[in-house]
Amino acid sequence: MSVPAPRTAVGGTAPDSGRIRERFQALKEAGRGGLVTFLTAGDPDRETSSRILRGLPAAGADLIELGMPFTDPMADGPAIQASSQRALKAGIKLAEILDMVRAFRDGEADTPVILMGYYNPIYNYGVERFLADAKGAGVDGLIVVDLPPEEDRELCLPALAAGVNFIRLATPTTDDARLPKVLANTSGFVYYVSIMGITGTRSAAGVDVRSAVERLKRHTDLPIAVGFGIKTPDQAAEVAAVADAAVVGSALVEQVKSHLDADGRAKPELVETVLKSVGALAEGVRGGST
Amino acid sequence: MDSLNTYRGGPDEQGHFGVFGGRFVAETLMPLILEVERAYEAAKADPAFQQDFDRYAKHYIGRPSPLYFASRLTEHFAKGDTGAKLYFKRDELNHTGAHKINNCLGQILLAKRMGKTRIIAETGAGQHGVATATVCALFDLPCIVYMGEVDIERQAPNVFRMKLLGAEVRPVSSGSRTLKDAMNEALRDWVANVESTFYIIGTVAGPHPYPAMVRDFQSVIGRETREQILEAEGRLPDSLVACIGGGSNALGLFHPFLDEQDVRIIGVEAAGHGVETGAHAASLTGGRPGVLHGNRTYLLQDDDGQILEAHSISAGLDYPGIGPEHSWLHDVGRVEYVSATDAEALEAFQLCSRMEGIIPALEPSHALAHVSRIAPELPKDHIMVMNMCGRGDKDVFTVADALGVTL
Q: How would you write the pLDDT of chain B (407 residues) with one tens digit per residue?
């Protein structure tokens, strides 16, 4: 057997699901930026979070990021930290998150699902087994915060080989010299972190998103989603006007938190309220028209 | 695996010790991590950097620390015609009372060199926080120390010391509210302030180059020990013993001896209430490989890869991971890793205070607990060096509480 050559081509050896590409193509044809929503799987419990997940496409989410909670979310702010704690306290396991996606896929063939989290639970599950199970469940992509290109052999290259998109974060500190390295094995889209910092703590307003997106576009043909710090429909609209999609996470997770009772259980209106917020954000990226 | 040519060659260019180590950090930090690595390589090659380090080590920290023959404990452990000859490497006599300052000195000199204007650190027992606050006062840099709320409570004297030194102590209320959470919070701060800020990590863990860099700064312990034991005994020791949380004092002592095949090397982890109870901090004895805080290493984790809370009476050992080089030394079998419980450490703490007039920190009390198990059986000509890496002033409240004494 010969030594495998380093893989650098987008897409790897197995075909990906194509859902992310098709969704961005459809957005382009519709002439608007997309809405990417983030929610933590299992927050505040499996059933409630499954109901939110199932309702997201109809509420207007174009792509879905599903957070895999971790005890030590080093890149996340207080909102997603607390959300992860709630999900873990409710006992969610990685295998159950894959089950949630499988159930979601039963009724929803088109909306891409991207799992987002940290490496240790995946490493612990076993990389090959995880990729096979995720692909089988209908997962389209992965965002793993603590795997920079320097660690591509861990999960990125195996994911590409398994036909799962590996979406990388680019940040204001990723300069032009480093960008090609970051983009080399990225597939699906590029997630631009518009602020230096952790999730949900600083406002993206005032950040020059347009020139950042233009800079990235000089280096890649992949769609650019922008996130970290986008909270309101207006901000989402602003970002979606200059990028291919806007990501909203902490603001939705805060909605979950504000509809829990004193014992941390979901109040009856929780699912509907969160989906209504998604609806408002979706209206934002659609230019405010009804 | 065949025996290696050297155990001192790691890490490789990607920061790996075997499969351990690496750079598992968010992209925002990656450019900075690479900058720290370049700056450290340049500093290592610059004689002026080493001269600065040596000058402050001598006149500010008080190095070299003595290598002391613990005659009464040696006698106490002896039985009949056996019993090892015990030396303490007295790093508890350093300015600020522990080995932590060696590393802080090195890192702040590097931070200055890089033009950084703000220092952050995490701390468990508070020793690393105090040492960081100390060098920040010395070099006139603002200092923010993250510390878990649980640790703030059990290490109140050190919290006050840090404040006296001009540092801001930020309580961490997330997760288990101990050292690992303080490290998460420091990393979050760093991500938000990459341009101005240097993160002084307190142990041989974190993303490359930290494990190697901290080891290098702490290796002054082992280098001095080597010279001192040659002077005292005319030969190298037969064994080295040190306690391990993240493992910086241990690696500092061990590293210069790793290629001396005749030197037996033993690291002592904190077994808390006992490894079998689950309430412990013994990552090698009771954990398995995983990825946390920028490196792959042995971790305490559950079946789903979630990090477990560690337990030790010693706040400085209360961490669910260990430096990646220790994980590698464990797997290749060069270093033996054992553990000692809270109760054994408390026993050793009191014994050392009474027999040698040295009140040890609870951390090295774990090392002494293991010494007390093996020293009696070893031959009289066996020379053993234990790293007395910290003094126990900070622990008197904890010990009083454990012994049921109200102060």
A: 445 789 999 999 999 999 999 999 999 899 999 999 999 999 999 999 999 999 999 999 999 999 999 999 999 999 999 999 999 999 999 999 999 999 999 999 999 999 999 999 999 889 999 999 999 999 999 999 999 998 898 788 899 999 999 999 999 998 888 889 999 999 999 988 989 999 999 999 999 999 999 999 999 999 999 999 999 999 999 999 999 999 999 999 999 999 999 999 999 999 999 999 999 999 999 999 999 999 999 999 999 999 999 999 998 898 999 999 999 999 999 999 999 999 999 999 999 999 999 999 999 999 999 999 999 999 999 999 999 999 999 899 899 999 999 98
| Chain A residues with at least one Cβ partner in B under 8 Å | 70-78, 81, 85, 88, 93-94, 118-125, 145-151, 168-175, 178, 182, 193, 196-198, 201-202
Nearest by CB to residue B27, choosing from A76, A174, A202, is: A174
Residue A121 lies in a domain: yes
Q: Do B184 and A72 touch (CB under 8 A)?
A: yes
What is the residue range of A148's domain?
Answer: 19-283
CB nearest B194 (choices: A123, A148, A196):
A196
Residue corresponding to tokens 């430096």: B323
The CATH 3.40.50.1100 portion of chain B extends over 16-58+99-214, 65-97+220-402
pLDDT of residue A288: 63
Q: Is there a domain that residue A11 lies in?
A: no
Tell if the CB–CB gap between A72 and B180 is shorter than 8 Å.
yes
Q: Give me the CATH code for the B16-58+99-214 domain, please.
A: 3.40.50.1100
Q: What is the ipTM of this complex?
A: 0.94
Domain contains A248:
yes
Residue in B with minimal Cα distance to A80: B174
Cβ-contact B165, B134 below 8 angstroms:
yes
Q: How many domains does chain A have?
A: 1
CATH code of the domain made up of B65-97+220-402? 3.40.50.1100
CA atoms within 13 A on the CB side of B17: 31
Q: List the CATH number of the domain containing A277.
A: 3.20.20.70
Q: What is the largest CA-CA distance in chain A?
A: 61
Active site residues of A: 65, 76
Over the range B37-73, which residues count as b (16 or more CB within 10 Å of their CB) and which as e?
Answer: bebbeebeeeeebeebbeebbeeebebbbebbebeeb
A64-95 residue pLDDT tens: 999 999 999 999 989 999 999 999 999 999 99
B13 vs A: CB within 8 A? no
Tell me the nearest-neighbour CA distance from B23 into chain A, angstroms. Answer: 7
Contact B299 A168 (CB under 8 A): no
CB atoms within 10 A of CB B31: 18
Binary contact (B188, A94; C-beta < 8 A): no
Q: Which two tokens stand for residue B196?
A: 């101005």
Inside any domain, residue A7: no
Query: Do the Cβ atoms of B188 and A74 come within 8 Å?
Result: yes
Which of B30, B32, B307 minimises the CB distance to A150? B30
Q: Is the Cβ pair A178, B31 closer than 8 Å? A: yes
